[in-house]
Amino acid sequence: MKDISIAVHGGAGTILPSSMTPELEEAYQFALKTAVEEGHQILHQGGSALDAVEHAVRLLEDTPLFNAGKGSVFTKDGRHEMDAAIMCGNTLKAGAVAGVRSIRNPVRLARTIMEHSDHVFISGCGAEDFARNHGLTFEPENYFFDKHRYQQWQEVRDSHVFMLDHSHDEKFGTVGAVALDQKGHVAAATSTGGMTNKRFNRIGDSPVIGAGTYANNNTCAISCTGHGEYFLRAVVAYDVSCLMEYKGYSLSQACEEVVLNKLVKFGGEGGLIGVSKTGDIALTFNSEGMYRASKKNKEQTYVGIYK
């Protein structure tokens, strides 16, 4: 069997053992392990990298532990606005969505855009109409309610302060997945609920092709998590691919150059996951921690949280 690889992330930031109960840590580890192993099983059975990353991200969207889908944070007006993207490294086709509400799995909508429209990136009410036209699942507002997220919003709702994702400790809860399938194709997907108390329909890097999400069979697949404004300005995901394609960097060299050098120099915090066309995996971050998991071929599943 040819090499297969998959990695997932559930966000990065100031993630310390001191702020984690044993029960919560176990819950995070179980969710990450389940997502990566179910995605790996799709690859093992000959499924596509696209199917694997979409499935893994949907599982993470369906748990309130992460800031995506069900666990999305509250905006300034007490609602939930979600963004997502998916990209196929074989065709360079991509689908992305921003600022949608009530959609259970934004990553599914992103893939539907990629496969059933002439567009790459749509947003807001139009994207929701598109989702209805294609029979995607919507949920009532209370589906997205989480007491912990609500309390975080209550602390800042009457101010103009936005919280970098969902914590005073700067945790970026975006979720994502990257994979290499048996045919040698790579794919990436990313999904997020944005920033707590965000205003003006702010959009980060997650749904932007080349910034938070990118896949190219010639190089790699990348999914990012961090302070989106910096990742947008640095075009992080595409920059990693470019270093590999034009300078001959390995995946790990390219990820370290961008995340540990370029981003750090101008204050960008966060990380990324990547898989190369040869199946190498990178889990690179400059923050205190990153929720992450990976599995290659028949190797043991890796799950990590802290630095």
TrEMBL record:
CDD domains associated with the record: Asparaginase_2
Coiled coil residues, start to end: none
Pfam families: Asparaginase_2
InterPro entries: Ntn_hydrolases_N, Peptidase_T2
PANTHER family from the UniProt entry: L-ASPARAGINASE, N(4)-(BETA-N-ACETYLGLUCOSAMINYL)-L-ASPARAGINASE
Protein name (record): Isoaspartyl peptidase/L-asparaginase family protein
Organism: Pontibacter silvestris
